[in-house]
Amino acid sequence: MMKVIELRKSYGQGESRVEVLKGINLEISPGETVALIGKSGSGKSTLLSLLAGLDRPDSGEILVQGQKISSMSERELTNFRAHNMGIVFQQFHLVSTLTALENVLLPLELLKRSHSLETAKNLLESVGLSHRADHLPSEMSGGECQRVAIARALAIKPAILFADEPSGNLDEETGERVMELLFKMVVETKTTLVLVTHDPDLAKRCSRIIHLEHGTLL
Asked: What CATH fold (topology level) applies to the domain 30-56+84-217?
């Protein structure tokens, strides 16, 4: 599913440049659920951004389904991500002017998928939000917004789902319910999951835990 070879990433300029990732090597198999854990500043979110093609490495290679995304053009990468990847962020990143249904529908319509409306409605029902279909993000709770974001991320039936602290902005009880839903849907759809979390209990729910410390894997 995914192979990472000698991945390096640094930020800053000159003497103030900081190496965040120091030669990461990693393989992820289809259907695996992988937790990336580590202290703040260990490079978890940076690694996730690189794996999801949201940022570029300084050196090294990233292959997803045999495709070298680290050397794709921006257009090729955007197209590849749209067809193969789902991403759930801590901040939800829903389109504020679109309803819950329209947010889930958006990636399907961009790809001109058949039966898009039916698929989007079914997904909203799967996350228990059929009654919120016509509501804007500002009219929904944080937990509801994150459930919409999960439905949107899974709409295209991605080969791999990335989640960056998806319960980080939610209270404990709501966060647990949202993560229960996320794992349930990942298992049902047999989607590969890469999850960044600081929660050890959440990490234990994954089939593999990867520790990052000072930019290297332990």
From this structure: Rossmann fold (3.40.50)
